[in-house]
Amino acid sequence: MKIGIDCRLAGRQHAGIGRYIENLIVRLPALAPDVTFVYFFHDQRQAADINIEAPNVVRRFIPIRHYSLTEQTRLPGIFTQEKLDLLHVPHFNAPLLYKGKIILTIHDLLWHEFRGTRVTTLPSWLYFLKYFAYKKIVGQMIARAEKIFVPAQTIAQTVSRYYPQAKAKIVVTKEGISSTFLGKRISQPHKLKQFIYVGSLYPHKNIRLVIDALLKLSQYRLLIVGTRNVFQDDVKAYVRLKGLERQVEFLGYKSDSEIKELLEKSTALVQPSFSEGFGLTGVEAMATGTPVLASDIPIFEEIYQDGALYFDPHSVYSFCASVKRLESLDTEQLIQKSKKIVTQYSWDEMTQKTLDTYRSCLQK
Q: How many whole angstroms from its chain centre is CA 248?
């Protein structure tokens, strides 16, 4: 049995999708020694960073940029040459011309719901051309896929709403938590009057709401951690416009252990998004005993349950009110709720369910 996985987006530099792929591919070989896994990495450096040593893993290097025309024209031949029994593309960007059995992961349908030139840095003509290609690829690949993994019931409902024919194919595989965040506290620090945000700075992440709130919460600081530079200059300019340079700090990339330490020192992790696929940084914060302030969107309410405090992502007043609620709470009770909730999320369980789905597809 030979299963291929497109790993070009693996690794923390690719945010939540990268963490999902990395945690999947490092666990699969030991769970299925009878399967040969072909991992298609972008280059040797990426493969070395993830460092998978297993006798049943074959590495292939395809330096083809994701979301590119070359991806659609060259990948079908590369995948076909490997004579795979099954191919898993853990994102929507599967090659239309590949004819073998294929499984997708749809993390969200964000670009179905947030579109237009305000959500891109591309020229308008190029954005609309790529948007047309995106819609065509997603629609056709959802129709062709044997199964479609999604990280939550909320995303399953979204996919089914846009593509009713996909409902029977959907398999929910909840994400997990790195052992770093589940370990003992790095220190026992005094909580500082600071919020921490971990992630990219696309407009739908809505970080400007928190920045605006700092004008009313002058005793607080905001730490922004993230590896992506897209839209970061815009956010920095917005901070300067508001005169909040002393209250907002951009920390760039941080390791899991560094993020854990920052979380332990912070009043709360903030998640002001208008849309998400899962909310991985929130469950990681909950695992460390750090309160989460999250927008009251369905995906967060599903994943965080009663382990977070919620606010209207369109209202600075609502965010500030959630901060005031947190200040008046017995946070130990909230932390204990959070600790119980995070036990529902396991990379091992996700990987096992993924493998079981592979096998069921190959038995057809």
A: 24
| Helix (H/G/I), strand (E/B), else coil: 233 | helix
Distance CA 334, CA 330 (A): 7
State the Cα–Cα distance between residues 10 and 19, nearest whole angstrom.
Answer: 7
Domains in the chain, CATH or no CATH each: 2-176+346-362 (3.40.50.2000), 179-342 (3.40.50.2000)
Mean pLDDT of 110-120: 65
| Strands 170-172 vs 147-150: parallel, antiparallel or unpaired | parallel
Per DSSP, the three-state class of 346 is coil
Strand boundaries in the chain, DSSP class E? 2-6, 36-41, 57-61, 86-89, 102-105, 147-150, 170-172, 192-198, 221-225, 248-252, 266-271, 292-295, 309-311
Which pLDDT value is given to residue 304?
A: 97
| Tens-place pLDDT, residues 32-88 | 999 999 999 999 999 999 989 899 999 999 999 988 889 999 999 999 999 999 999
Q: Per-residue DSSP letters for 64-98?
A: --TTSHHHHHHHHHHHHHTT-SEEEESSS---TT-
What b/e string do you get for 217-243 counting C-beta neighbours within 10 Å, with b at 16 or more? beebbbbbbbbeeebeeebeeebeeee
Q: Model confidence over 300-314: pLDDT tens digits?
A: 999 999 999 999 999
With beta carbons less than 8 A apart as the criterion, state whether 220 and 244 touch: no
pTM score, whole prediction? 0.91
C-alpha distance from residue 40 to each of 60, 133, 354 (Å)? 5, 23, 18
Supply the Cα-derived Rg of the chain in whole angstroms.
Answer: 21
**What pLDDT was estimated at residue 114?**
64
Mean pLDDT of the chain: 92
The set of residues, in sequence order, having a beta carbon less than 8 Å from that of 295 and lying 6+ positions away, is 206, 271, 272, 273, 274, 310, 311, 312, 313
